[in-house]
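tl;dr need the bound structure. longer version: we got a ligand (FE2/S2 (inorganic) cluster) that a collaborator sent over and nobodys looked at where it sits. i said id run it. heres the input, straight from their email, havent touched it
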Amino acid sequence: MSVTDISHRKKFPAQGNIYLPHIVVIDKIIEETPSVRTFHFNFNFKDGKLRKEFTFESGQFAELSVFGVGEATFCISSSPTRNDHLECAINRVGLVTNALHRLGVGAEIGFRGPYGNTFPLELMQGKNLVFVGGGIGLAPLRSIIWNVLDNRDKYGKIDIIYGARSPADLCFKYDLDSWNRDKTVNTIITVDKGDKNWTGKEGFVPAVLEQAAPSAKNAVAVVCGPPIMIRLTFPVLEKLGFTPEQMITTLEKRMKCGVGKCGRCNIGNLFVCRDGPVFTYAQIRSFISDEY
Ligand code: FES
């Protein structure tokens, strides 16, 4: 079986009835960007049994609901290797996310999931890993990055290339600091345009990736970020020698029901919720430039 043959992976069933939200309680809120558009929520199940028994894998997503307002889809940004609580990063962009941002610690919200397939971690063991992220696209990546770092001896060289539009738009700065300090990881942080205090790298993520030029030999690249960044990153990886089967991404766009019923998330002949959200570039390259 090839490392990049991710279609075989089992899909985790939701916990219990797939349509039934469970109550979770928000126990921490971190403001990720000063523009107040991205908050990072930590939460846990109200039900102690579920708190103990709930499982998920890196790459999966969930539906969060604000009662009386509605629900929306978010990737789970925490790692299953650190399962004392769950985390989701939420950009304030619509009705549900605005309502979520108005909540405080102690508020109860609905959670259903986990849904979708997972990053093929078992098949990535022994490989060199290249993580390429942009903006809030680091949310799903940080789940797999922490998962890999918590099992460091199972993987080869690790490169993390992450960027945002400005220093203020960099998310998860505490993680970036931690990865920067980790001598077993090559972390490169970049911004499109720095401010007067920025002493780090400037440049768009695909260009910085090209400069860094990680080897494609025995490697897998995992890419997540804004659609334009994803579209421009794949050709760079190809130029570096990565095959479409060695490139993995996770798509989050346009999901609604999360369980293959509403038809909102189709891309080409695939449903993001049912067939993904994790795909190889080989699976999506014929339609990603038109539809994503
Ligand atoms: S979100 Fe409804 S079918 Fe995918």
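gonna send this back to them w/ a short note. The pocket of FE2/S2 (inorganic) cluster is lined by residues 255-258, 260-265, 271-273 (CB under 6 Å).
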